[in-house]
Amino acid sequence: MTNTIRYAAARGEPYLFPAEQAGAAAVQGMVATYDGRPLPYAVVLVAEPQGTPHVTRANQAGEYRLQGLPAGNYIPVAVAAGFEEAVLRNRWGMPWSIQLERGQSIVVPEIALQPLVAPPLGPDAAARSALEPVASYTATSPYPEGATAQVRQWTFQRNETVNDTLFVYLPPEAAAHDARLPLLFALYPGHSLMWEDVSVAFASRGYAVVALSPLAGYGRNVIEHGEDARLALHLARSGDLGDAIDGEFPLAISGSYGAAVLNRMLRLEPTAFTGVALLGGISNAFSGAAAFYAGNLVWPPALGYALAALGTANAKPDNFMRFSPVYTAEVMPPTLLLHARADNMVPIQQSQEYAAALKEAAVPVQTYYFADEGHYIQVGEDTSLTTRRVFLQILSFLQKQHSSAANRPFALSQSVTLSTDAQTG
After folding, report:
1. Which of 1, 108, 168, 375 has the fewest CB atoms within 10 Å distance of its CB?
2. What separation in angstroms does the CA of 47 have from each of 123, 342, 345, 378?
């Protein structure tokens, strides 16, 4: 509440927190499971109020030491693959804020992490979620030329909340040829219909595109959005969204806020996808918040308020950790990161940091950084040359990953030729 009021008082403009003075304070402790066993190599973090993170990893014995910290109040947070993020808590289970003076070094109690368990879905998920088709129609896209798809909209229900953003896009010939098409799960940052041209474009290249968007009713709750996405993927792979969907080696595309939701899914089910392409994705909410509060990013007021509502990063680090897939990069499948150099909403440094974390975790990663576009790029009537190149880079990556998983020779469909003018890595 305090943080949101301060943001409102600044009339929706980023504001600078009081400058933190560089210091030599330190915190040390241990990360353990809830049954008391040391948890090796967990990420441990404290953040300055505006977001700047100080990060380390526990050693093999679960011990960690964070040093070089400015004086101030902090709540340490930890996370590890297969475990929920958790903050330091006192004996009554309340978050424990530690006060550091300049040059001080303190030892804190252990941070205990709970296993991250995927709720079972089961063969009756369609019935339990009241899955229903609500509309069918034909859609076209200006790019690629002549792109057409048969579309079916579905609704499903979870926790008495109805999600109407689930759409399936199939090429027109799929029904006629009784084809089974590779599943491409598209998790969009806005309503699925806003990105229909993109869905049609990929469907026209031989994919069964299952599109979903984070439901507005859940706000910025990554956990709830992740559960909706898990359920939608399960319904697609189980055949409940149609027999034309081959869910054996599913692929995924997403971007922006959706990158955090996909990471949440993969923390629950690390083998869900054989490849993921992320465009302008959020990887580290801590460093992203610091860039925003320093005035380096251009956001609409609604996003500024959404960030302010998370609280300050030193006092609510678990809220920020859920938007920071960079710290659980090891759960990701082979990944393609695409980012506009001029993106002033999610800066390119987010993908650069993610790429480094993926490489450190031995996850195969490719990058494609480009100019001439901003955060939002769309297929449409005036599809730019840069957007076409982005589409073809994603298409090539997805087809290579699917061919590799299925142990088939790679062949780019429909004789599409890739341009390699943009700088890649």
Report:
1. 1
2. 43, 27, 21, 35
